[in-house]
Write a structure and sequence with these properties.
Elements (H helix, E strand, L loop, with lengths): L3 E2 H4 L16 E4 L5 E10 L5 E7 L8 E5 L3 E4 L4 E4 L4 H6 L11 H12 L31 H4 L3 H4 L126
Parallel strand pairs: 2-7
Antiparallel strand pairs: 1-3, 2-3, 3-4, 4-5, 6-7
Length: 285
């Protein structure tokens, strides 16, 4: 199985550890509490499972980096430390040096695992019955990491964590519809009256006595014509009323947002640590 650096596998891996970073943690021995180096990198498989811590042994062996199987480590974020379970200076010297420029293949991993399987380190704190010191019949074709949980398993004894929980109020806003304003229009009818002045002609016949009434006129002037008619055109005006549409007013519809503060109150819970250790020395860090 191909291994790769944690940062290459997931550039944002710190988000999954609440901002904690394993890289840079000091590596200490268990029991003697002696610093042996620093976590330089983490190697994971193609599914993201931790397989090795790359430990820079600058404090023990200048310039040498070795691989510490994750099952032989214990991370303590409270003290910002990584503990190497059962690692001794002699064991560290026997480990093959890790070179980032060389391929990390099955043969190299077997050299690393062979050191941790060596019977002369079987008196370490890993404990009996874990398979240390055995000579498993593995090959590159059938080997899987779960075959050796003492090297790659995150056992509960060395990786247990007690989590204290608390409840918090998370305030969010929900936008919901509270009503609807419908704005439309309808037609109302009414009777409108308008006064239009009109003119009407009529004929007025007026008979008057001329000033020369009774005077004789020449026979040529007095022409008696039968059927002579005077014609006068008579006109009158009528009201021509029609309807035209005009814009009376405009209605603009807008929304105004009013802000208010709503206070909410709920009972929340928080877990506190209870330590029951009568007459025993306990140090909290």
């Amino acid at each position: 199985m191909v291994l790769q650096r944690l940062l290459d596998f997931d550039p944002n891996y710190r988000d999954n550890f609440q901002g904690n970073d394993i890289q840079g943690l000091g590596v200490y021995t268990e029991g003697s509490d002696e610093k042996i180096g620093t976590v330089n990198d983490i190697l994971v498989d193609d599914e993201g499972h931790f397989r090795y811590l790359v430990v820079d042994l600058g404090f023990w062996i200048f310039g040498k980096k070795v691989l510490l199987p994750v099952g032989r480590s214990r991370i303590d974020y409270n003290t910002n430390r990584a503990y190497a379970i059962g690692m001794t200076r002699e064991q560290a010297e026997d480990l093959p040096e890790f070179d980032e420029g060389k391929m990390l293949d099955y043969d190299y991993e077997e050299r690393v695992r062979g050191v941790y399987r060596n019977p002369k380190y079987s008196n370490t704190s890993v404990g009996a019955g874990t398979g240390v010191g055995t000579s498993p019949n593995y090959s590159r074709d059938n080997y899987t990491y779960d075959k050796e949980p003492t090297l790659y398993g995150l056992n509960e004894q060395n990786h247990q964590t007690l989590k204290l929980y608390e409840e918090r109020l998370i305030a969010n806003k929900i936008r919901q519809k509270t009503g609807e304003v419908a704005i439309g229009k309808h037609v109302e009818s009414e009777t409108a009256r308008v006064s239009v002045p009109v003119e009407r002609e009529h004929v007025v016949i007026e008979r008057v006595t001329p000033e020369n009434a009774g005077r004789a006129v020449p026979a040529s002037e007095a022409t008696f014509r039968e059927g002579e008619v005077a014609r006068v055109d008579i006109h009158e005006e009528t009201a021509d009323v029609r309807k035209e549409a005009f814009v009376r007013e405009e209605v603009r519809v807008n929304k105004v947002v009013e802000q208010d503060t709503v206070e909410a109150q709920k009972t929340i819970r928080r877990e506190e640590l209870d330590v029951n250790s009568p007459n025993l020395p306990i140090e909290e860090r």
